[in-house]
Amino acid sequence: xxxxxxxxxxxxxxxxxxxxxxxxxxxxxxxxxxxxxxxxxxxxxxxxxxxxxxxxxxxxxxxxxxxxxxxxxxxxxxxx
Length: 80
Fold this sequence. Notes:
This protein is mainly alpha-helical and 80 residues long.
């Protein structure tokens, strides 16, 4: 299997079932890990302190979804 040099900037691939995508490069895994750590920290801060951190989780999640969509080869749904 050869890798298409024009498609090397995609960090995610569409999943077979469901929506969203799965990371396929180390950059994709870094994005997933960074989002998980940031979301966990925001939830912890919302529970133990400022509720504003809980509300900030929504725009951060929307941005993460859009970022993953922009870096997914062919969008989120696989054509069958």
